[in-house]
Every structure is written in C-alpha cells, then in structure tokens.
Amino acid sequence: MKLVDTFNRALSIWFAKHGITNLHFVEGEEFCYYPEEKAVQWGMLLNDEQENMFAQFMYEYGLEREVNPFVISLLHEVGHYMTLHRFDEVDVNIDHAAKQIMADAAKEIDITTHYWYWELPTEFAANIWAIEWIKDHPVELQELHNLCEEHCNRIFADTEILVQVMEWRLNIE
C-alpha cells in the first residue's frame, strides 16, 4: 500500500504548505474526520450516487463551480478540522448520534435523509467552510484536484488495492 501512504503524506504536506497544519490523512472505507487524532480519512469505497448527491447539496448551498466530488468530500472533512472547535460537546454528540442513525439506516438512504444529516450544525459548518475555501482559492483548488487525480489514478489502478476495495465492498453488502 505504498501508493496510499505516499498520497497520505502528499496531502499532509500540501495542506501544511497552504497553512493548514497539524493535520494528517489516512485511507479508509469512507470519508470522515477523527478529531482526537486530527486525521482526515478519505474514502476508498467511492459511491458515485452518494458523492453526486453530496455535490448537489453543496451546489444548492452556494458552491458556484464544478468540483470533483472526491475533492469536495476531502475539503468537507478538512472543514471539520477547521470548524469543530466552534462547537460544544452537545453539538458534537448530536453529530455522532446522527452518524449512527445513518449507519443503521444505510440501506434506506435517500436525498432527504442526506440533507437532514448535512444540515446538522457541525456538518453544515464543515460544508460552508469547504464552499468558502473553494470560492476563495481557485488556484489552490486546481492544484489539489491535480494532486488527488494523479494519486487516485495510480492507487485505483493497483491490483492489490483493488482486491482490498472489493473485499470491503463484499463485507458491506
């Protein structure tokens, strides 16, 4: 999984170069943020339907340019890192409970459910941070897009990685 480790390091270096420090990146099944570890997990189980629904939500809430759903999701998770300090423990616990509800109802997810989830205070703050960052950083956005595309193309062309991804998919289904 050297390709994945290289991408994780490249993301950490890229964000640090652009002023977002003390954050590291890990791979996993889905996108999420681990506040205790200050770690953004990017999802290797890309679900086009969910990614496109999330992108649509972002467009409806102010995203004005077309952005790759992977990059939107990555910036959303970085947005948690940048905004979570604004919330108290109650808000964070509500967010956590909502994630559990989503996990329990995963087979019956629809756009209404997603909108409810994405409008939770901590989720919405991360969304707005990502939208504003995209708006204010067009050059950096293109750099980030190129970085992600370059690494993801190599990662998802690797047979060993594809086997791992398929095993995850089979365990979910």
Describe this structure in words.
This protein is mainly alpha-helical and 173 residues long. It is 67% helix and 8% strand. The protein contains eight helices and three strands, in the order αβββααααααα. The protein has a three-stranded mixed sheet with strand order 1-3-2. Helix 2 crosses helix 3 and helix 3 crosses helix 6. The protein starts with a helix and ends with a helix.
Question: Top keywords for this entry?
Answer:
globular; three-stranded mixed β-sheet; mainly alpha; 173 residues; 3 strands; single chain
In short:
This protein is mainly α and 173 residues long.
Strand content: 5-15%
- Span from first to last CA? 24 Å
What is the mean predicted local confidence, pLDDT?
87
* Largest sheet: spatial strand order: 1-3-2
* Radius of gyration (Å): 16 Å
User: Overall 3D geometry?
Assistant: globular
Overall number of strands: 3
- Uncertain segments are none
SSE-based structural type: mainly alpha
Largest sheet: 3 strands, mixed
Q: Oligomer, anyone?
A: single chain
Please write the string of helix (H) and strand (E) elements.
HEEEHHHHHHH
**Helix-residue proportion:** 55-70%
Count up the helices. Answer: 8
Task: Outline the fold blueprint.
Elements: H1 2-17, E1 24-28, E2 32-34, E3 39-43, H2 48-60, H3 69-83, H4 89-104, H5 111-118, H6 121-136, H7 138-155, H8 159-172
Parallel strand pairs: 1-3
Antiparallel strand pairs: 2-3
Helix pairs in contact: 1-7, 2-3, 3-6
